[in-house]
Design a protein that fits this description.
By secondary structure, the chain is mainly alpha-helical. Helices cover about 65% and strands about 0% of the residues. The longest helix has 26 residues. It comes from Micromonospora solifontis.
């Protein structure tokens, strides 16, 4: 039987305490939607276009890579992991002729703040200030060694307003977690396309992901053949027990690597962050397309006190 998303990514309904790394996944389901407004809200797209980054992918690559400086394609191919190299090379370094990294950073923060403002205008200012302060505190506890995107985002100047600070803290935590996930994926021996192709045999859409990540039909078919040879897919293209168990271990390793900020913040602080983020994340999730390659599971009831 093929695994489901529940098998691979969803936390247990009751996560008892912060010493269970599954709680890091619960927190991810809350800060990830806050970060993701930069990809899916029309105000974010408009902010990139205003500085000359027309077209979705120019804004995506320039905005996400900007904390690294005016990098060329190889650094982004490595850090972003799942994109076809020619797709990245079409965007970088040419986007830096349209907007500098500094302009791209300002545009991404402007668009994100405007998007969040639409989702949070009914919430009291004190709610947003406290959420920003606590999420900043968690983001300030990230371990940057070996986490390039997390590190460069953590080093950015502190935002002037609560929503700017909230979004930047969510982004730092998101990229920190993503760096740990990529490190765990590397240990499987799969290449980026093999990872994407395998997930599309489990719970995601090849039609969407192949186009969004820039892989050709020939490359995709070859990757699936390799997955069969490596024991991740059966000859019929079904996920094997080996592949399912190995990927579950990747997810568990990702959670362990992402748990540090929440342990440092403590159960009381983390519980409060969750309480404050839930109404914001719920609103932000409404604009994330179901087929988007983020992999967010459905939110479940879990608390640090059980």
């Amino acid at each position: 039987m093929a695994p489901t998303r529940d098998d691979l990514t969803e936390p247990e309904v009751h996560v008892a305490a912060l010493d269970d790394p599954g709680f890091a996944r619960v927190m991810w389901t809350l800060f990830e939607p806050v970060h993701a407004v930069t990809y899916f809200h029309p105000r974010a797209r408009a902010a990139y276009e205003a500085v000359g980054l027309r077209g979705y992918w120019r804004g995506y690559f320039a905005g996400r890579a900007a904390p690294l400086g005016p990098v060329d394609a190889p650094a982004v191919i490595a850090a972003f992991f799942s994109f076809a190299p020619p797709m990245v090379a079409r965007a970088l370094p040419s986007v830096w002729r349209l907007a500098t990294p500094e302009e791209a950073l300002r545009a991404r923060l402007t668009g994100a703040v405007q998007a969040l403002a639409e989702f949070t205008y009914e919430l009291p200012e004190a709610h947003l200030v406290e959420a920003a302060e606590l999420l900043e505190e968690a983001a300030g506890r990230v371990e940057i060694a070996g986490r390039v995107l997390g590190a460069v985002n953590a080093a950015l100047p502190r935002g002037e307003y609560p929503l700017a600070r909230l979004w930047q803290a969510a982004t730092t935590l998101r990229e920190h977690r993503g760096d740990g996930h990529v490190a765990a994926l590397v240990t499987t021996g799969l290449d980026p396309l093999e990872v994407v192709a395998w997930r599309c045999r489990v719970d995601q859409s090849r039609e969407f992901h192949q186009r969004a990540r820039g892989w050709t039909d020939q490359e995709w078919v070859a990757a699936e053949r390799r997955l069969i040879d490596k024991g991740w897919l059966t000859a019929d293209g079904e996920p094997t027990e080996h592949g399912t168990a190995t990927f579950r271990a990747v997810e568990e390793a990702t959670d362990r690597a992402a748990a540090g900020p929440w342990r440092a913040l403590g159960e009381e602080g983390t519980a409060r962050v969750r309480e404050l983020l839930e109404p914001i994340a719920t609103r932000c999730r409404t604009i994330i397309p179901p087929q988007a390659p983020i992999g967010l599971p459905a939110q479940r009831s879990a608390s640090p006190t059980g």
